[in-house]
Structures are given as structure tokens and as C-alpha cells.
Amino acid sequence: MSIEVKNLSFSYEDNPILDDVSFCVKSGEFVGIAGPNGSGKSTLAKCLNGIFSPTKGEVFVDGISVKDRSKQWIIRQTVGLVFQNPDNQLVASVVEEDVAFGPENLGIPPSIIRERVQYALERVGLINERKRLVATLSGGQKQRVAIAGILAMRPKYIVLDEPTSMLDPVGRKEVLSTVLQLKEEGVGIVYITHHLEELVYADKIMLLYKGRIFKEGSARDILTDEDTLKKIGLDIPEIPALALRLKKFDVAFDNIPLTIEEMVNAILD
Amino acid sequence: MPSLIELRDVWYQYNPNSPLSYWALKGIDLKIERGEFISIIGPTGSGKSTLIQHFNGLLKPTKGEVIVDGIEISKTKDLKALRKKVGMVFQYPETQIFSETIYDELAFGLRNYGYSEDEIKERVEDVVKKLGIEYIPLDKSPFLLSGGEMRRVAIASVLAMEPEVFVLDEPLANLDPQGRRELLKEIDYLNRKESLTVIIVSHDLSEVSKYADRIIVLFDGTILMDGPPREIFKNVEKLLEISLGVPQIVELLYTLYKKGADIPYNILDLDEAVRVIVKWRRSLGNRDKLRTIPTT
Ligand SMILES: Nc1ncnc2c1ncn2[C@@H]1O[C@H](COP(=O)(O)OP(=O)(O)OP(=O)(O)O)[C@@H](O)[C@H]1O
Ligand SMILES: Nc1ncnc2c1ncn2[C@@H]1O[C@H](COP(=O)(O)OP(=O)(O)OP(=O)(O)O)[C@@H](O)[C@H]1O
Ligand SMILES: [Mg+2]
Ligand SMILES: [Mg+2]
């Protein structure tokens, strides 16, 4: 079971945006995507759940082509997309109605919807705001509602387009731990971010540059490759950056650490 | 000389006299001086966006006084002059963008204040370069841009007005890492060379703390801390407790400190972290490191 992207190209009218992109997201796999502004990340995200249909190439969701317009329904419910801007996603006026909107559309019985809404709002820490009007929420609160809306649909794959851009640091950690838990439960994750330290637990990271995959590899390969990241306008996260600098002062590392914990262990060793 | 911006016991209530009423600011006392570079941080929903909208009169205090450059905003009729002085970039750029082309968007404010088309063209070209969007055709619709490109346009449109006070609500969100750095450098330059007063709301402490003279921590509608970054970073535990974090390198040094390392942790950048760690390791010499670091 997987999302399979094969030689995908996509153009807005005459403007080519994605060029011959191929990769695969399996159930239970966490794929991170990073790349500079305008490199095509959000466009790619919208190709994964069939909002956009490939200009060339194919995207298969569990074997079904997203080009098959008769299967749009099943594809949208299999691949949940958290939009970059929550305002493009939030539809209902009250928080809990908005979160219930997706599952309602799937024809799920009300008692189960209630459970799922409860679960999703608890996960994002908004259970006390359930009766609030979406329009009166703060920026970060809106982003949390958007995430809850997708969680409540329980899709097999979740694509998150900069889901933490408006969240406080603890909110970021909570979203990441939710994502990791979903991965454990077998959900396939595509996670787009400009904060590369959020990708330390990714099974694989793809760097997108001018619509092409510039480099692909394990989290450790990518997040310690300062030259490659610099070249395309990204930055190496602080912990590996620190380790690379410490190496010049004779601090030895078996592996360049990615997390604070790894760094502490390496230094105290 | 009076402060550039002064808030005296400011309270703000959304939807007064309704079941949805909510006190978002609760007694804010604050002075901001000309030429300061300030960063406002605080957990989700703590009142940051509400607070800054008082600086140009978009919101008026329910109680208390807001005085900007000698003018009390609740009393003035000339909000237009105030808004020219205090440029504001909103948290979501979509809420501020409405023109049909990028050029018109960038020119809108300038036209509104009667600048000549020549001067407008010059300024537009200048800010387009500063925000790194020269590769995008200016006749393109600003709605057909990527998230980061749209934010750059929103920032550029306010920068084009050459405000005296530049207020930005989460300007780094959606920007790529290089874009974040370049924007801060540009703003820092204007701050130092042209004494632009800068107020940035951001969750990106590791970036803004390199430039800010002063960090204001909001919590539940009140000011919890106010001081230079180094002072603020001394309160790691408290910051973590209220859903805020500190830069990863600060957290790292703090973790080492708690394990018994005799090091400062209120640092601002990588070079400093390297120096602290190298010095500490040398001071240990050949001694068993674990002896100086009691295991927890
Ligand atoms: N609807 C559209 N019509 C025409 N061009 C578009 C449209 N949407 C995006 N583009 C262009 O396509 C390119 C890729 O956009 P996309 O939104 O995929 O980038 P991104 O990698 O998500 O960037 P960001 O990091 O800024 O969110 C950009 O240069 C953008 O200007
Ligand atoms: N129009 C409104 N009506 C009622 N309450 C509101 C309204 N706008 C904001 N609030 C509430 O006021 C509080 C402060 O909101 P504000 O937008 O200032 O927060 P913030 O610190 O900017 O948060 P974020 O980091 O999420 O953007 C929040 O709890 C929010 O839900
Ligand atoms: Mg995008
Ligand atoms: Mg806000």
C-alpha cells in the first residue's frame, strides 16, 4: 500500500512547475520535504490527493490513478491534506462543526463523528474552544483546527504543508509527536517544512529545487549535508551545525548528532 | 523626550457585552523608544496580534491609553497619518493582499499617499530586490503565488512605504531559511542605519534573538517578561512551562548545565555555543568528565 509518484510533471497553464518527480510513500512511512520558496512543494502536495492532475506522469494512491476522475472521492478520503494556509481549508463557522465536516462528508454515523471530533480536538489542544467561532480564533488556533479537521477523517495518508508555521514551540512539538504516533499506527506521512529540525525522525527526506528532486536520502544524510542545503537556500539545523563546528576543535563524533539528546550523549561520552 | 509608543494600563475585550466576550489584553504597561528592535513572543492565543494592532489604531483599547508619537489613538481623527508612520504586516498575508497584479499591490499604499508614478516605480523595483522576488513577473496576480512568495509581497508592500515604525506579525513564517536570514538582515540594516523602529512578533526565537535588543514575553494577555535576549534566556524552565521554547543550542547548553557542567547557557548564536563548549571541555583537561558531572 503506497502513494506512488512516477515521473510526475505539472504545469500551471504554460508554466512548468514540477519536472519529472518520482518517489513513494508507504504506509507507516514518514517522508519529509523541504525546498526554497516557490520550489513546488505545495503544488506537489496538491498532486498527491488529486486536487491537481499530473500534466505528465502518474500518481497512484493504493494503485488508483489520481487522473481517474471517477475515483476522486475515494482518493480524497484516503489522502488527507492539511493546507499551508488554514483559511483555505476551514469551511464551517464553529470549530467543532468544521472538524466534523470531513467525517460527515464521508457518511460516518453521528456517534462516531462525535468521538472523532473529540479525539481530534484533544490532540491539538482545542477541546475548550470547540464552541468558538473559527473567525475569532488566533492565527495559531486556526492552524490547529485545520490539523484537527484532517485527523478526524482518519485518512490512510496525511500530507501536511507547513503545519506548524504559526505554532508556538510546544505546539510544534505536539504536532510532531501526533504525526509520529500516526506513523506508528501505520499512516503514511508527507511532511513539508522550512524548519528542518522537524525532520530528524523522517524515514527519508527529499529536497525539492526548481520543481525537481535535488537530493534524497536519510535524515542523517540530508540534515548534515551543509553544502547541499546552503546551495538551495536552506540551512542545516542548529544541532548538526554545532557538531560540524565542534569537530574542528577535536570533538569526535561517531555520527553527527541530530537531536539535543544525541548531542548530550556524544559530548559526555 | 516622550516614548515613541506608550501603553498605559491597556485592556482589550473582544465582543463586549456578548456571551462571546473575551479579554485578550489585561493591563498592559509598555514603553517603546525610537530605534528599538523588539521581538514579541508568547504562546498561541496570548494576545500578540491583538497587542500590535493597537500600535496603528486598528484596534482601540477598551480601557487605558495608547499614545503613539504624542497622539492618543482613541482621540485622534487622523489615523491616515498614523498608519503612514506605523507600517504593519499582518499574520496571514492573504488578509492584506487584494490587488490584481503584484505591481499594483506594491504601489497601492504609495498611490494612496500621492507619490508620483516615477517614484513609485523606483520604490517598487527597490523592494522587489530587497525581498528577493525579482524573478516573478510584476504583472502576475499576487494570488497565484506560493505561500512564501505571497508573504514577501506583503512585506515588500509595507516596506515600500518607508514607515518609521515597522510592525511585522510572524513575518518569518513560510519563508525559507535563507529568506528568513536575508529579511532580518535587511531590517537590521534599516534599524541601525536609518533608526527604523522594529517590532516583530515571532515564534522563531533563534533567528530574532540575534537581532532584537529586547524581547517581550506575553502570556494570557499580560507581559510576563521584558528584557534583552540574554536575560530572557536565563528563564529556560519558565519559558518551557508556558509553551515557549528557547533556541536548540540554548536548550542543549541548559541540559549540560543541569547535568553538572559549569557553563553559561544564555547564549545567542552558534559561535558562542562552540566557544562555551570548547572552553568547558578544555577546563576539564584530562580529568574524568563524569566526575565533574554528577549523574542524575
Ligand atoms: N495557481 C498558480 N498559478 C500560477 N503559478 C502558480 C500558482 N500557484 C503557484 N504558482 C507558482 O508555482 C511555483 C511553485 O509554487 P508552490 O506553491 O508549489 O511553491 P512552494 O514550494 O510551496 O513554495 P513556498 O515555500 O513559498 O510555500 C511558484 O513560483 C508560484 O509562483
Ligand atoms: N474576534 C475575536 N473575538 C473573540 N476572541 C478573539 C478574537 N480575536 C482573537 N480572540 C482571542 O483573543 C486571544 C488573543 O488572540 P491573538 O490573535 O491576539 O493571539 P496571538 O498571541 O496573536 O496568537 P497566535 O500566536 O496564535 O497568532 C485568543 O485567545 C483569541 O482566541
Ligand atoms: Mg508552499
Ligand atoms: Mg497572532
What is the fold's blueprint, element by element?
The complex is a heterodimer of chains A (269) and B (296).
Chain A lengths: L1 E11 L2 E12 L3 E5 L6 H8 L7 E6 L2 E2 L6 H7 E4 L12 H11 L4 H14 L15 H13 L5 E5 L7 H16 L3 E5 L11 E6 L2 E6 L1 H5 L2 H6 L6 H10 L12 H9 L1
Chain B lengths: L4 E10 L7 E11 L4 E5 L6 H5 L10 E6 L2 E2 L6 H7 E4 L12 H11 L4 H14 L16 H13 L5 E5 L7 H17 L3 E5 L3 H4 L5 E6 L2 E6 L1 H4 L3 H6 L6 H11 L11 H15 L4 H4 L4
Parallel strand pairs in B: 3-8, 3-9, 6-7, 7-8
Antiparallel strand pairs in B: 1-2, 1-4, 4-5, 9-10
Helix pairs in contact in B: 3-4, 3-5, 4-5
The complex binds adenosine-5'-triphosphate (2 copies) and magnesium ion (2 copies).
Task: Kindly report the spatial arrangement of strands forming the biggest sheet of chain B.
Answer: 6-7-8-3-9-10
Strand content of chain A: 15-25%
SSE string of chain A: EEEHEEHEHHHEHEEEHHHH
SS-based class of chain B:
alpha/beta
CATH topology of the largest domain in chain B: Rossmann fold
Number of domains of chain A: 1
Mean pLDDT of chain B: 93
For this structure, the CATH topology of chain A is Rossmann fold
Shape descriptor of chain B: globular
Spatial gap, N to C terminus of chain A: 42 Å
Largest sheet of chain B: 6 strands, mixed
Rounded to the nearest angstrom, the distance between the terminal CA atoms of chain B is 53 Å
Biggest sheet strand line-up of chain A: 6-7-8-3-9-10
The secondary structure category of chain A is alpha/beta
Q: Helical percent range of chain A?
A: 25-40%
Number of domains of chain B: 2
